[in-house]
Specification:
The protein is 49% helix and 16% strand. The longest helix is centred in the middle third of the chain and has 25 residues. 31% of the residues are buried. Helix 1 crosses helix 5 and helix 7 runs antiparallel to helix 8. The protein has nine helices and seven strands, in the order H-H-E-H-E-H-E-H-H-E-H-E-E-H-E-H. It is of the alpha/beta class and 279 residues long. Helix 3 links the parallel strand 1 and strand 2.
């Protein structure tokens, strides 16, 4: 099938209800997915410069695009091609020649499923008390950023922050104070890839991509001072002057040979030491 004709048909069928980005070659398709982060990819099994199955497999295995459902456009009712498409990671197949009404229905179903899956995942990775991500989100994001740092040869900083109050061996902050701390950290970390998460027991973690040691330590001290100031002056936390803020910082350097578990263990050890020897 002519690729341009397929694109034109899909544009007329879907363009009124959805924002579409068109690529006529496989070489254009992957960068476009990375740039625009679409909710759905419609992928022709036959392209001028690439195999749609190979590109589908690449999209489904790349952590940057694996969450995007792929609707594979197969050549007729070729069962073997459809099976290969599903094995390559496609969410569903649509036979060509394309029926516009069926295409609209299939797209609507896949978008609805994708939305529900994203909503469920957000709930599973969200801490209701603090309003930021939980340990599950932290683990996932740290893994993503660790691998990205390795690919790009960039530093990665991990900051752990604990809030202690005299006489409390477990959580001392109420929900309003937790929100205050989470909002203070999030407001300071404004780069899109920076992430704040809550670990429970008044402990927060910040993942800071492309952050060298000097910058990471400077930022950590600024964050600690901001949190201390907010707790001291906030009406939601009377007695905030009794709170102490401890930090543990570890940085993967651009040429690091260590492990992600090692980075986390180092940050935890430094946090434990700071809590035992405040000041």
């Amino acid at each position: 099938h002519d690729v341009v004709a397929v694109i034109q048909l899909l544009y007329h069928a879907l363009g009124h209800d959805h924002q579409l980005f068109m690529a006529s070659t496989g070489e254009q398709a992957l960068p476009m997915c990375l740039q625009h982060a679409p909710d759905l990819v419609l992928l022709n099994v036959a392209m001028p410069d690439a195999s749609g199955l190979d590109l589908c497999r690449q999209l489904s295995t790349d952590e940057r695009t694996a969450h995007i459902p792929v609707l594979l456009l197969t050549q007729g009712e070729d069962v073997l091609q459809q099976v290969s498409g599903i094995q390559a990671g496609a969410a569903e197949c649509l036979a060509q020649p394309i029926n516009p009404v069926l295409a609209k229905l299939r797209v609507s179903v896949q978008l609805a499923l994708h939305y529900q899956a994203r909503l469920l995942n957000d709930r599973l990775e969200h801490d209701a008390a603090s309003g930021v991500g939980n340990r599950k989100r932290f683990d996932r994001q740290l893994g993503i950023e660790w691998r990205r740092a390795g690919r790009n040869g960039e530093p990665l900083a991990l900051l752990l922050l604990a809030i202690d109050s005299p006489g409390h061996t477990t959580s001392a902050l109420g929900q309003d104070s937790l929100r205050l701390v989470a909002d203070s950290l999030s407001a300071r970390l404004q780069r899109p890839a920076d992430m704040v998460s809550y670990w429970g027991n008044d402990q927060f973690a910040c993942v800071l991509p492309n952050t060298p040691w000097t910058h990471g330590m400077t930022l950590a001290r600024e964050l600690a001072a901001t949190v201390q100031h907010q707790l001291h002056h906030a009406t939601v936390s009377p007695g905030g002057a009794g709170y102490s803020v401890s930090l543990g910082v570890a940085v993967r350097t651009s040429d690091s040979q260590g492990s992600m578990a090692g980075l986390l263990a180092l940050a935890e050890a430094r946090l434990a030491d700071a809590r035992q020897h405040p000041g």
